[in-house]
């Protein structure tokens, strides 16, 4: 078996191209147990995602989880599925199209596409296509605002494995995280202000109100081992609260999607919101700043399950604020992130130096005649 993939045919005179790839986590191809099983097997087989020795984890994954969880998860996916497919795929594709348009308006001649880390379109397949089209410069934009070894690092792992199989490698860059990016924070703050305009802004220091920022959870052990995710989540929450002018007592930062029996980052979202009515909190506005596109974890877990938990516990008003999705201010922030990473690459149309020189010569000639 050859060590390297065959190189695509090279056509002389073909100019090198630059590409931007927006990469998100992934989704099943359909809300069925079979599709969910395929997706979960790929996702939960990644040692970055589940840091349990393979000899211990493999029997649990294949003998228990993949025989029970797909049916349960498929039923949840069915409640959020759209005629166009998975919300995560729909939003990611739209974001890529809007990003391409805005970068084009700013004068960049780049290809913009999208890929998924798990499921389809698979990142290696997208990179293969770009290379075949003579893209010699590729920028990866993982859609994870806060860095974690179980998210951003998995994208870089897969991209690195792809590079390792190539004889003629392209240049590769990647955005690490953007937890404190001013444009990202501003877009989040604008979405909350718009929500308050529509549903009423809470009174200053109102003890019955909380703005809850729910981030995806990870095992606490990863924090102890040096993963910066926890700190970056709190940085985002702190900057957003500051931008909104909210006092500390009206803001909560929580972590959702706990899986298994091990301790994860706390406080946990669902138990925290279930307890809030006992403390006199009757209204919550909940957003998920760690997701830039709505998905199962936001639309089903938060907007359905956690909402029911809060209301059943005595809460009166629960509002879920959608992810940034296709907001123009978020697309502008995403374009800013891309432009900073593209710096130094020749992505803009070259100046017509010959035409400029001729214009200057004509101006000089006219000046001399006058």
Task: Summarize this structure as a short list of keywords or feature phrases.
48% helix, 12 helices, Rossmann fold, lyase, 4-stranded parallel sheet, 370 residues
Descriptive overview:
This protein is an alpha/beta fold and 370 residues long. The chain has two domains: 178 residues, Rossmann fold, CATH 3.40.50.1400; 139 residues, Rossmann fold, CATH 3.40.50.1400. It contains twelve helices and eight strands. The strands form two sheets. The chain has a four-stranded parallel sheet with strand order 2-1-3-4, with helices on both faces. The chain has a four-stranded parallel sheet with strand order 6-5-7-8, sandwiched between helices. Strand 7, helix 10 and strand 8 form a beta-alpha-beta unit. Helix 6 crosses helix 8. The C terminus is likely disordered.
Write the layout of secondary structure elements.
Layout: E1 17-27, H1 33-44, H2 54-80, H3 87-105, E2 111-119, H4 123-132, E3 135-142, H5 152-164, E4 171-174, H6 182-199, E5 209-216, H7 220-224, H8 229-244, E6 251-256, H9 269-275, E7 283-287, H10 296-312, E8 317-320, H11 328-342, H12 353-369
Helix pairs in contact: 1-2, 3-11, 6-8, 6-11, 9-10
